Description:
Blueprint: E1 2-13, E2 16-27, E3 31-35, H1 42-49, E4 57-62, H2 71-77, E5 78-80, H3 93-101, H4 110-116, H5 132-144, E6 150-154, H6 162-177, E7 181-186, H7 189-195, E8 198-203, E9 206-211, H8 213-219, E10 224-230, H9 236-240, E11 247-250, E12 257-261, H10 263-275, E13 280-287, H11 290-298
Parallel strand pairs: 3-7, 3-8, 5-6, 6-7
Antiparallel strand pairs: 1-2, 1-4, 8-9, 10-12, 10-13, 11-12
GO molecular function, one term: ATP binding
Protein name: ABC transporter ATP-binding protein
Pfam families: ABC_tran (PF00005)
Amino acid sequence: MAIIEVRDLRKVYGGRAVVDGVSFAVEEGEIFGVLGPNGAGKTTAVECVEGLRVPDSGLVRVAGLDPVADHREVTQLLGAQLQESELQAKLTVREALELYSAFYEKPVDWRPLAERLGLGEKLDSRFGKLSGGQKQRLFIALALIGGPRVVVLDELTTGLDPRARRDTWQLIEEVRASGVTVLLVTHFMEEAQRLCDRIAVIDRGRLAALDTPAGLIGRSASSTVISFTPSRPLDPRELAELPAATSVTTDERDGRVTVNGTDDTVNAVISLLARQHVTAHQLRVVDATLDDAFLHLTGATT
Ligand SMILES: Nc1ncnc2c1ncn2[C@@H]1O[C@H](COP(=O)(O)OP(=O)(O)OP(=O)(O)O)[C@@H](O)[C@H]1O
């Protein structure tokens, strides 16, 4: 059953629709990603779901409730990640957890929650002294403290080092495993590909695509990439004419050739090399990534 429903959502600022007719539904228990270039309207759309912004038109429902008209009820079942500026630097982790517990009718016991999120040793530390990763873990704890059915995480791992980002991914997976639906706004393709069951790609206020990560990659014109360094130069035009080849590039420094296409292209490249008695050094064949699909869908870079 859909726990979040967004239908034909529109939000206008200064005469410009920054969210322009977006529709999607999030099923209970999913990690649902919202991905898009800067300024695409992701935060605006997600904040309409949280009841923090009022839509100009369209319908938003969370567990059947209207986030604006039924704001109180919705805040009891939807946990939102805070922005850093919303917590005072002098507040200790324990004080923050106690304070936020008081906001909810049926808060969970924050002690095991803090332990689970690796904050047990940090209860007396002040917020301002925590590392980026520890702050993010505290934000996840505060988002979960009301025992929500849905959590909204917006750019949660921005600014974290790769290790802390991976730890946060594991936490997000654990949150979902505990039965909470996750709405995740992200810029990171790897994050979306690894975590999300489905992804809504938003571009210039509109829904450009909605699919599983594998489904989005499959839409990209080139699903496979072959690269190699030939034992002698090849004619790029000949490569470009191979079946389903979508692009051919040759690195000027080392002569390395990269051909985007499909599995048919890979087979054709290998036959061509054999026919011409060319040896391919360091031959690599990889699947296209969500990055390729994203560029294909939005024509933008993140
Ligand atoms: N309160 C506001 N008043 C006027 N314009 C706004 C307001 N909030 C957002 N916008 C504009 O709406 C557009 C979408 O902004 P939004 O923050 O939703 O995008 P986003 O996809 O979340 O971007 P980013 O990835 O950069 O955070 C931007 O052009 C932004 O300047």
